[in-house]
Amino acid sequence: MPARSPASLRWAGRAQFDAPQGGRESATVATLKRSRSYGSRAAGESLRGQLIEGDSLPAMRLLGALPEDERPRPKLIYLDPPFNTGEPFAHYRDRYEQSDWLSMMWERLVAAADLLADDGSIWVHCDDRGQAYLRVMLDEILGRDAFIASVVWQRRYSRENRRAIGAVHDYIHVFAPLGKGWKEVRNRLERDDPPNHWSNPDKDPRGPWSSVSLVAQGGHGTEQQYYEIVTPSGRVVAPPPDSCWRVTAEGFDRLVEEKRITFGGGGGNVPRRKVFRSEAKGLVPWTWWTHREVGHNEEARREQRALFPDLPVFPTPKPERLLARVVEIATDEGDLTMDAFLGSGTTAAVSHKLGRRWIGIECEPALIKNYAVPRLRAVVDGESGGISDAARWQGGGSFDLLRCVERGVAGRPKVGELATAA
């Protein structure tokens, strides 16, 4: 466990996790048994998943106890646990004593953190009620330096009138052991530039380009970033008040020499840096994810109805576009993802379509039988819903269904006692 966090969450039952083990226990109370396999393994390991029926705690501990060369090290762990809303959902339990819910989450966050790859990230989906508790837990378990961001997802676009203030968003806390260094391994988002964004008015042999400002906020500027520039027309320009140039004078001269500065058609405008389409990077992810970008609850329900027209809609599904955004930021093709509260199987389905290996754990047998297995079989067969068109998905790969069988340790939840909301 990392160095002690300056803040610590206390609740009835917390003392048991303050022992040296900190919520880690032996995994010998459970075994994994393969039930059957689906699809073809001709595509190799890159399109292969493992669907585990059983409580996520013993399942993750069992995976963590495997020999080092067999132990899975997910690059991404996405957790969408019960929010403890008290709602009477038909498919899973969502009413706990608060102390029981906190203990349940602590143990599973510890088990997940122990499996996570050194260069991986863990994304914990939560609502207003639980997000503050889970943020403090994650600070304690992974360390405050591992905190990356709290994403806000606009899960609905219509007004919510049942409360004093309508709730229209969820949170996703993102932590990574690399901390600030995770920036070097995470992926940027694909650009979605308008048709007229790139042009080549000066016939630059390097091709179409756009321009970006050279002005930056002055609060963090160095002395070398405050200077005057003489434009080709003879005009003298300086940064606006409380601003500075993004580059030093030496850096600016180098950009001029490389013909990466534009002063406008007349040569007298404030200089801007040329960015060529051939060199343009993707977009840095930010924390505000709108329903237009990554979908919303109703979109997820439509996907569910298309997949399961004869079944009640799973009550809290997530749209495939939302999980695609998470998977694409956090992993590369061939990497391993894990969802320890799999629900109807969205994370596994999206991971498979995007060419990632995956592990999905779900404790409720009815969800496995009626939702996850049929959905993932449809994915292997090439179903066309969700992100299939965007991912150019045509089917393939395989997955194994395994059962995590517990040996009845006193006080531990059994299969089906805890479930998910994904």
Instruction: List the helices and strands in order.
Output: EEHEHEHEEEEEEEHEEEHHHEHEHHE
The percent range for helix content is 10-25%
Radius of gyration: 25 Å
Number of strand elements: 17
Strand content: 15-25%
Total domains: 2
CATH fold type of the largest domain: Rossmann fold
Ordered list of secondary-structure elements with their pairings:
Blueprint: E1 30-39, E2 48-53, H1 56-64, E3 76-79, H2 98-115, E4 121-126, H3 131-142, E5 147-154, E6 169-175, E7 209-213, E8 215-217, E9 229-230, E10 236-237, E11 243-245, H4 249-257, E12 261-262, E13 272-276, E14 288-289, H5 291-294, H6 297-307, H7 320-330, E15 336-339, H8 346-353, E16 357-362, H9 365-381, H10 388-391, E17 398-406
Parallel strand pairs: 2-16, 2-17, 3-4, 3-15, 5-14, 15-16
Antiparallel strand pairs: 1-17, 4-6, 5-6, 7-13, 8-11, 9-10, 12-13
Helix pairs in contact: 1-2, 2-3, 7-8, 8-9
Give an overview in words.
With 422 residues, this protein is of the alpha/beta class. It has 2 domains: 27-190 and 283-406, Vaccinia Virus protein VP39 (Rossmann fold, 3-Layer(aba) Sandwich), CATH 3.40.50.150; 209-279, no CATH class. Helix content is 24%, strand content 20%. The chain has helices spanning 56-64, 98-115, 131-142, 249-257, 291-294, 297-307, 320-330, 346-353, 365-381, 388-391, and strands at residues 30-39, 48-53, 76-79, 121-126, 147-154, 169-175, 209-213, 215-217, 229-230, 236-237, 243-245, 261-262, 272-276, 288-289, 336-339, 357-362, 398-406. Strands 1-17-2-16-15-3-4-6-5-14 form a 10-stranded mixed beta sheet, with helices on both faces. A 3-stranded antiparallel beta sheet has the order 7-13-12. It has a two-stranded antiparallel sheet with strand order 8-11. α2 (98-115) links the parallel β3 (76-79) and β4 (121-126).
